[in-house]
Amino acid sequence: MNELINMSLLSDWRTFSITLLLGVLVLFLARSHAHSAITGFFRLIASVLRLAAKASESTREQLKARNREVLLEQGQQHVSQELEREFYEVSRFVQRDLGGYPAIQRQIHEEITRIHDDYEKSGEVITALPEWVEAVESVAKIKSSEHAANLNNKVLEQIHKSAEQQHKEQLQLARQTAADRHKRLKGMTEYWRKLTDSVDDVGGRLKDIITRSENIDRHMKKYTDITAGTDEAVRALRASSITQFLIALIVVVIALGGAYFNFHLIALPMSEMVGSTDRIGGVKVSDLAAMVIICIEVTAGIFLLESLRITKLFPMIGSMDDKFRRIIMVCAGSVLLILASTESALAFMRDQIAGDLASLRASLSGGSIEATHSPISEWIPLAANMILGFVLPLALTMIAIPLEYLLQTGRTVCGSLMEILLSGITMVFRILSSTTRQTGKLLISLYDFVIAAPLWLEAMIMKTRHNKDQDFSATQSYSSARVKS
Amino acid sequence: MKKCILLFRSLLQRSLSPIVVGVLLLPVLSSCGSGEGSPSHARGVYLLLDTSGTYTQELKKAQQLINYMLAMLESGDTFAVARIDSGSFSEKDIVAKVVLDSRPSMANKQKREFAATIEQFVKSVQSSAYTDISGGLLQGIEFLNEADVGRKTIMIYSDLKEELPKGYVRKFDLPLDGFTVQALNVTKLRADNQNPQIYLDRVEHWKTKINTGGGTWQVVNDLDKPEAILL
User: Fold this and answer.
1) Does the ipTM exceed 0.85?
2) B43-228 has which CATH code?
């Protein structure tokens, strides 16, 4: 190796110096062309990168606009549904509650008439003036004599008696009338109460409709904002969709955990049914069969919820006639129940297979079967397995709801992520473009640094020549001035 | 009615189409997964038990090992136990063999029967005068090749000292490509204790022979750790 170095041109410092000088000279002579080449090359790369950045930015803008459109459209649909529901509730309220308003009105009128009648009755005059007052006056006008006095006394006594009797009768009548009035007034209380209740009932129902109308106002404002496409509405919708996406994602992950557990519950007994030796794509057929059963359960659950109009993954089902919808509902529900029952039976079988395997292992290891018997009742895990086998498929049907949310909001979230990604790409392109441009300048500086010595000489020569030129022109101007003078 | 037709069309387009695609792809996947050209996932184990001389005393331990392996093997796996005697290149030396059924319950039943056969064999075994390990190995290779299994393992439960009767020739290369050969419980003989080099040479001889044939060689002497046996 050393020999090679010794033999090389570089080992000889004279040759090296000459080569270096020649190289520097060549570089100096090709300086302007080299500068042009370097500048052109790096400018080309920089412009390509800048173009890529612009394209990326343009794509991002398009995506942003599209995302905004989709978000507003989804928001509009959502608010429309909310409004539809509120109007439906209001309509139902009007039909159900306000439909009975004429009956309430009639009832109130009847109550008021009754109260009025009672009031009229309670205001009746009971007695007229006593008739014996005129008789007393006539007796008083008779001339006074003994016989007259006796007669008067007798008449007066008679009148007194009659007056007392009449007084008693009148008093009794007055008492009776007062009692009757009190009774009627007491009866009016009940009518008043009924009237108050009727009015309160109407008021309560009207409060509900007021709340509904406030909700409608709020939704309408939201709807107007969305239709106008305000930034505030877009921000609110985006925040809402991200939150919903995360919640739906968590629920779907939990549901997947349930599906995984369900799979393990039925995979072993499925191997008893379809065998466990054959494989498709490296996966056991029994495992595939278990997965297929779970997928069918989930599909049946989705159809059930669709037919119940809880989800809208297949709008066609929701918009079908009630008759067909009911058929789908019954079919999906039946499939679910059958599969749930099957899974329960499979869970039972699993327990038996596991027990058989445990006893085999015990016998192979030399222990007796009795020795493996634990004090814990075998029925508890068996029952738990069977209940889980039945409940899990039914619980898995609910996956349709978070799945729908996940799909709906996934578009927005993915779009937002793509926007961020494109922003990042644009930034990287811009940085690279700028770096490339600066690298070109750096290379030119380095080039000039290599040929610094000739450049310095050139500058010196140029300076000297410049000075000479200046001196010459000064001399010439001086001579011409002298000639002129 | 029209709506119904539209619904079914929609279902076919949206939801059933992946299932249809799956059904169409099923034969392709099936041919990929379980065709003749595809590798089998089943395991094949051929255990050779040395019944010569004093080694018969070790057979009780071998029975435990067999039981452990029975517990580990799954549906579709092949397992055979053969004795090494004076001339082991024979189907008659296979004590028990089984291809475990695809149904777990039947596989368990087969395992029980297998274990009972082995127990009976261990009780009634008589020691042989010679030890034909090479013949047993060749028999094992033939058996596992016929079984068409994915992973082939031959276990030799022996002290690895081969003694052939007069007139028996075992000078051939073993076609062990794709095989794993495990020597289990290679006991040290009295001569080994006197000169350990004899033991080392014996093990090395078999290692060379197996590796030359294209197989993988392993020695597992500590049977208290059955997990060391790589199935």
Assistant:
1) no
2) 3.40.50.410
